[in-house]
Amino acid sequence: MKTPLTPLEPVLRALNIFGSRPAIQAGEAALSYSELADRTARLVTLLRDCDLTSGAHVLLVSPNTPDALLAFCAVPLAGGVIVPLNPAFNNEALNFLSGHADPVVALVDTGCLARVAERLGKLNIPIIEIGDASDLGARLRAVSPAPLEVSPTLDEDSPISINYTSGTTSDPKGVMVTHRNAYINLSNLLYHLNLRPGSVYLHALPLAHGNGWGSAWAVTAAGGTHVMPGSDDPRELRQALLTRGITHLFASPAILTPLADSAAPMTLPRPVRLLLAGTLPPPHLLEQLQTQGFQVLHGYGLTETNAVMTVSELDPEEGDTRVLSRQGHPMMFGGQVRVVAEDGQPVPADGFTPGEIVIRGNQVMKGYYRNRAATRRALDGGWLHTGDLAVVHPDGRVDILDRAGDLLTIAGQSVSSAQIEAVLYRHPSVREAVVVAAHPQPDQTCAVAFVTLHPGAGVRGEELRGFCTPHLPEYALPSPVYLVAKLPKTASGKVLKHVLRAQARETQMRETQTREK
Q: How far is residue 359's CA from residue 306's CA, in Å, rounded to a whole number?
């Protein structure tokens, strides 16, 4: 007998058997598993009353709230495909993607309603308001609960969610994650993170970002407790880690850097299993997190791989934290990850020869919604082409150098911006460091660094350049080093390098004009 692989089956198991266990905590409010099951069943009815049919899309525009998490249970159980949009997208992007996603109904937090109501109204999309300020509770009590079950006609290769990788309107990439994708991701998270009944997970990541890297379904399936902080303010996250009995956390370096600030040290009351991914973490951040009591797993993946795909965990016998800075091996059910040269052949496992990471496996997306050209480019030859450059070490661990477009060629030599950033991070005053290429002359390329400092630090850019001198060849030294108050970032916390390149170009043009006067 064959039944479809879907995260809905383990989610239904949890809703059926964990009864009085706490499912969601938000401030002083709490929801048990039996209460979550009842609200899920009633929201299924409400969605179907809005003419939701199998395979139709349901838009979700909301910060992390209990109602947003409820949507991740109810929408697919009602037969729909959930399309979460990050409220951090600007209004133009939110309104464009609201139309591009072809929803038949929208779940919108009252705090976001003004931003999308006009657009959804023009599209004749019915809106169900959600969130603390909404009347969702009353609307749910007014309807009967639907039977909670997986449709017997469910196709495991049909989408369960569509996740947009950015808010761009020029080349929209809505990643179609299938039920099978999500099931494999859930299995990997249960195994590698050791999620169990009694686990307490802190939602620091937006649920709109790769379905919270799969936490929306995995934590529920495990019978764990979802803790929803009131905001993404680092002070709230810190307070939750110290007082809420947190056992698990998924986060990017952008989220973790304020929590690991040496100027405000924190010691966890109990070990917290941390899945760290998103961008390359500086070595000192990994060390600080371990000192605080985090059990760090360093992962790598893309929205196109249903979030995290590989993981590196420090073996106590290895004793070298540098191993943890690598992106590691494929997860238990992660499939195949290769680093290949331009001819498509795997590079040697020498820790030196760079190539592009390509991936094939059950977590790789079905494709981009309504973007066949981008799908063909990404899945050329039956492999997902990531655009990430890496080397493979003798132990088989993958180690990312850069994005393909971020590898610098200076004085005829290839230089990884990540290697320069790693040196800058060794300085105790440096909080964040990003290196981009600049062109002071048409035929000349140099590395330019943008650096934020820890509070109270008084180091100058020239001093940081001098600090790098013993550790880098002359051509790779950042020149200049700009000290900035903050770095431009996407809604998911990734640094906008193209903005920094433009800033470097404009600054150098002004400096050239000043010298010529």
A: 12
DSSP string, 460-494: -HHHHHHHHGGGS-GGGS-SSEEE-S---B-TTS-
pTM across the whole model: 0.85
Per domain, the residue ranges of the chain are 8-392, 411-516
Could you count the other beta carbons within 10 Å of the beta carbon of residue 486? 9
The pLDDT of residue 320: 63
> Lowest-confidence range among 109-123, 216-230, 290-304, 462-476?
462-476
Q: What is the CATH number of domain 8-392?
A: 3.40.50.12780
Element (H, E) at 257: helix 253-259
Q: Which two tokens stand for residue 334?
A: 């992660």
CA separation for the pair 397, 36 (Å, rounded): 41
**Inter-residue long-range contacts of 334-338, CB under 8 Å, 24+ positions, other chains counted:** 334/188, 334/309, 334/310, 334/361, 334/363, 335/309, 335/359, 335/360, 335/361, 335/362, 335/363, 335/364, 336/360, 336/361, 337/309, 337/310, 337/361, 337/398, 338/383
Q: Measured over all CA atoms, what is the biggest interatomic distance in the chain, rounded to whole angstroms? A: 81
Helix, strand or coil, per DSSP, at residue 13: helix
Residue whose C-alpha is closest to residue 487's, from 254, 195, 197, 160: 254
Average the pLDDT over each of 16-30, 230-244, 437-451 and give the range with the smallest value.
Answer: 437-451
Residues 29-53 have a mean pLDDT of 97
The 10 Å CB-count burial string (b at 16+, else e) for 63-94 is bbbbbbbbbbbbbbbbbbbbbbbbbbbeeebb
pLDDT at 265: 79
Reported as a pLDDT band with limits 50, 70 and 90, residue 306 is very high
d(C-alpha 247, C-alpha 366), whole Å: 33
**φ, ψ of residue 437 in degrees (nearest 5):** -85, 145
In order of 49, 50, 63, the CA distances from 126 in angstroms are 11, 7, 20
CA-CA-CA-CA torsion sign (51, 52, 56, 62): positive
Residues whose CB is less than 8 angstroms from the CB of residue 165 and which lie 6 or more positions away in sequence, other chains included: 173, 175, 302, 303, 304
Residue-wise pLDDT tens digits, 392-429: 999 899 988 766 666 677 877 767 787 788 889 889 88
For 323-373, the pLDDT digits (tens) are: 888 888 999 998 999 999 989 999 999 988 888 999 999 999 999 999 999
Tell whether the torsion through CA atoms of 434, 467, 485 and 511 is positive or negative: negative
Q: Domain 411-516 falls in which CATH fold?
A: GMP Synthetase; Chain A, domain 3 (3.30.300)
Distance CA(92)–CA(168), nearest Å, equals 9
Peptide bond before residue 480 is cis, with ω within 30 degrees of 0: yes
Among 346, 356, 276, residue whose Cα is nearest residue 311: 276
Three-state DSSP at 301 gives: strand
Q: Return the CA Rg of the chain.
A: 23
Cβ contact 307:211 at 8 Å: yes
What span, in angstroms and rounded, lies between the C-alpha atoms of 72 and 215? 10
